[in-house]
Design a protein that fits this description.
single chain, mainly alpha, 82% helix, 0% strand, transmembrane, transmembrane helix, TM_pro_TauE-like, membrane
Length: 314
């Protein structure tokens, strides 16, 4: 019972982060399932089955708050579904001994990318309003869908930063569109896992609990996306994912690191992680202060211009 409650909380927190940041539900949930001993394919299958419900709830919530561009959803979601089905059948064909470290490496890379991307660069805002072309979105969706299924997550970590980096959509629209299109990826990946694994390796009570936690969090996250600082959240989530998957790799048969080496590695990662969060908070406050100064200057310039016009007319 305690394990199910924990999974429900993980589903809630993971969806809260995913709905606010446009990524990390699958990466976070799969990382936990691997940490408690679930085999790689079953972990990814469990998460993707739960995501059918959570992504539907999240997509509808974002749509109600005006955060979805349906043209982008179609252009990236359909190729993404093809990639997800291919990735699921590929992962299902690997042995557990091979799949677990491979998935941890993928998750570690995604976590490091999230950590560095949001800590160092924040959110680009240039080129807003320019169209996103199919020749960009289709390959992006195909690759992101394949990585998502093989890594137990990755649709958001690959898709969200790539579209944000283009600077052509407002962040809330990017996050809402990625979350809405993930519904197609979850269905395709789940179908691929059923073809490759069947249903005997999936614990459906875990699916239900993850789903309940995610569905509860979805509307809250869609509302929070307008208020929570994505830069800080990205740094925090990236650090958790890196730390957890380094732990998995160091304890795996591939490495089998001694306890002292593991401790040193954890301390170094935590120090980097804390420094990243502190830096993100500082930069976020600096950006907010700059925006406030610019707004005040613009207001003062506006008042000065009005005064000049009144003087001239007098």
């Amino acid at each position: 019972m305690r394990a199910l409650i924990l999974l429900g909380l993980v589903g809630f927190v993971a969806q809260l982060v995913d709905g606010s940041l446009g990524m990390a539900y699958g990466v976070t949930s799969t990382t936990l399932l691997l940490a408690i001993g679930t085999n790689a394919a079953a972990a990814s299958a469990t998460v993707h089955l739960a995501e059918i419900g959570t992504t539907l709830a999240s997509g509808l919530s974002h749509w109600r708050f005006g955060n979805v561009d349906w043209k982008v959803v179609a252009k990236i979601g359909i190729p993404g579904a093809v990639g997800a089905f291919a990735g699921a059948t590929f992962l299902s064909s690997l042995s557990t001994e091979i799949a677990a470290p491979i998935m941890s490496i993928i998750l570690l890379a995604l976590g490091a990318y999230i950590l560095v991307r949001f800590t160092v660069m924040g959110l680009p805002r240039g080129n807003l309003g320019k169209p996103l072309r199919k020749r960009f979105l289709a390959p992006l969706g195909l690759v992101a869908g394949f990585i998502d299924a093989t890594g137990g997550g990755g649709w958001g970590p690959v898709g969200t930063p790539a579209i944000l980096a283009s600077g052509r959509m407002a962040p809330r629209k990017v996050i809402g569109s990625i979350d809405a299109s993930e519904f197609l990826i979850a269905i395709a990946a789940s179908a691929g896992f059923f073809v490759g694994l069947g249903s005997e390796n999936i614990t459906f009570s875990w699916v239900v609990v993850l789903l309940i936690g995610g569905v509860i969090a979805a509307p809250i996250a869609a509302w929070l996306v307008r208020h929570i600082p994505p830069r800080i959240l990205g740094s925090a989530v990236g650090g958790i994912i890196v730390l957890t998957n380094v732990r998995t790799l160091l304890r795996s048969d591939w490495i089998g690191a001694p306890g002292g080496v593991q401790t040193v590695a954890y301390v170094v990662i935590v120090l980097i992680w804390v420094a990243a969060i502190v830096y993100s908070v500082r930069e976020y406050r600096r950006d907010k202060a700059s925006e406030s100064v610019e707004a005040i200057e613009a207001e003062l310039q506006g008042k000065t211009g009005d005064t000049k016009e009144e003087t001239a007319s007098a």
